[in-house]
Amino acid sequence: MQDPKWSERGWWSEGSRVVSGHSGEGQKNVTQIVRFSLLSGEPGILQGAPSVECRRAVFLTYFRTLREYEAVSAEPTASESPGSPAAPRAADESVPAGIDVRTLEWMRPLLGEYAFNFQHVAPLYAGDPASKEAWAGAVRRSQAHRRDAAGIAALIAAQQERRGAPTPAREAGARLADPRTVVVATGQQAGAFGGPLFTLLKAVTAIQLSERAAAEHGVPVVPVFWVDAEDHDWEEVRSCTVLDADFQPKTLTLADPEGAGELPVAQLKLDGRVERTIEELSTALAPTDFTSWVSDGIRAAYRPGAGMAEAFCTWIERVLGPHGLVVFESADPVAKRLAAGVFARELESPGRTAALAASAGAQLAARGHQPQVVPQPGSVSLFHLDGARLPIRRDGDRFFVGDTPVTLDALRQEARTDPSRFSPNVLLRPIVQDTLFPTICYVAGPSELAYLGQLRGVYEVFGVPMPLIYPRATATILDGAAARFLSRHHVPLNELRLRDESALNRLLQAQLPPEIEQSLKDADDTMRVALQRVIDAMPALDPTLAGAAKTTMAKMEHDLRSLQGKVIQAAKRRDETLRRQFTRAQAQIFPLGQPQERTLTLVFFLNRYGPALVDALLRELPLQIGKHWMLTL
């Protein structure tokens, strides 16, 4: 962890450059990442490829830490120990520095404790992801557990064939037939046009961990992205947000297809109105060298007649399939047959999963963290699919699908004969995932980290090895102008989240000429001293005048503050450049007042930086838990 004494420093270090373009014939895409030293005068890639039009994005590293670091312990922990999988890379100018997640008000406290005090929550998880021995144990447990490797490999191959997956993704999927193969999994709902930036960060983290685990443990490792599309919450996935050419947020919303809000998202079919939304998206994006590539890819995936889940899978596969990511559409009926045993076992002891999760939630709460899921006592962790996705409810000895009475025996029989009619809830989904895949690690978001901490007992009951849980990378991507603004003016990151102009006012006040600021301060001090003497003298003359004197003092303080506000307004009018820089940086870091990675769609970043963005993140984004990375392209 960084020394707190660095908290007031502000400096930027150049790391690598991303070189992306196409050949003069327009046939072969060229994407390379090279150290800056290779581009600084020595004959090399650029000189050797005169026909390549290069678009360069300079990676800078934001080494200024937050002022809040003064209150954060600098003691190293097991998660930061050298030699562990999560240990930081050697300190040099090409390695980004991160912000301690414990200083960021929007981060769940559990994430900080998981990263820096894992032993406090260790009983709730399968092992410390910062321990190489824990990874070795996860590999052994996964390889020893019997699964239908050939069945899942065939299912993946069929899905990839339908979508026309890139060759590296198909090769990775084929490796799942090998019983020695293990998986690093992650997943997300099928959000509009790929969902927020954190979708990409999850996938990148899974690919990085797969490569590292393969190198360290000598086993085939495949990164798998589980697309969850059986929820019927259409409102949660129908919109995406970009910044336009003026860095103003624009939210684009898909028109409601037939059944929206009632049917699972996987069953929703896009109609012709999707083309209008794509056109609106293309118009909102600032034109770049990559706009056509992005628009063509979106149109190919989100075409009229395509399912929402299918479109999401196709687009994610186009972006990340070349890096070997296997995209899995979990709503596939064939997958349900492979998971039928999980559904049957849940119905053998209905309510047991909920009870185990509730007990673990109480343990989580006892450690100071809010449980993510609070299941109803006796509830069944399954939904029934009959067009709509209906909960299976229990009332004493009676069971209902939605409001329709049903016998438990009938449900058990149907689970055996037609498992495609069942869907796991949030507590059972990970069990289904790790029944299908030989998962050694799951890359989780902050909320997932909480509910997965409620499932260790559930894994044990189902006889499925629980994987390690690795928090996804968390990052903010800035352009050079915003990065220079932050570095020059030392603006605390949390202050930029405020939706009013208080942070801007403080910044502008700091820019006032010293003589103006000092004169206002002197006037305030002088007024306070003089009036206090008057107030102190009043009781000797007439005690009733003391209140009038205090009122006069309050009025004068108000007038002085009003004058100070007018001075700041004058500074704003004088320094519109600073205001624009502030607004631009704020729009990038906290669009609509929310963290960038949760708000801006990955399409926005692909439009700015092209497919080389993925290469850059895979190379530059550190595998270190507990840090929020500021990356500049």
Overview of this protein structure:
The protein is of the alpha/beta class and 633 residues long. The strands form 4 sheets. Strands 1, 2, 3, 4, 17 and 18 form a 6-stranded mixed β-sheet that branches. Strands 9-6-5-15-16 form a 5-stranded parallel β-sheet. Strand 7 (239-243) and strand 8 (249-253) form a beta hairpin. The longest helix is centred in the last third of the chain and has 30 residues, at 545-574. The radius of gyration is 28 Å and the shape is globular. The protein starts with 11 loop residues before the first strand and ends with a strand. The model is unreliable at 1-95 (pLDDT under 50).
Question: What are the salient characteristics of this protein?
Answer:
633 residues, five-stranded parallel sheet, 44% helix, 16% strand
Structural class, from secondary structure content?
A: alpha/beta
Shape: globular
| Poorly predicted tracts of residues | 1-95
Rounded radius of gyration (Å): 28 Å
Could you give a quick summary of the protein structure above?
The chain is an alpha/beta fold and 633 residues long. The strands form four sheets. Strands 1, 2, 3, 4, 17 and 18 form a six-stranded mixed beta sheet that branches. A five-stranded parallel beta sheet has the order 9-6-5-15-16.
Secondary-structure topology with pairs:
Blueprint: E1 12-22, E2 29-35, H1 45-48, E3 55-62, E4 98-100, H2 109-116, H3 132-144, H4 149-163, H5 167-174, E5 182-189, H6 197-217, E6 221-228, E7 239-243, E8 249-253, H7 273-284, H8 291-301, H9 308-320, E9 326-329, H10 333-338, H11 340-348, H12 352-366, E10 382-386, E11 388-395, E12 398-401, E13 404-406, H13 408-417, E14 422-424, H14 429-436, E15 439-444, H15 446-452, H16 456-462, E16 468-471, E17 474-478, H17 480-489, H18 502-510, H19 514-541, H20 545-574, H21 576-589, H22 596-599, H23 602-609, H24 612-620, E18 627-632
Helix pairs in contact: 4-5, 8-9, 11-13, 17-21, 19-20
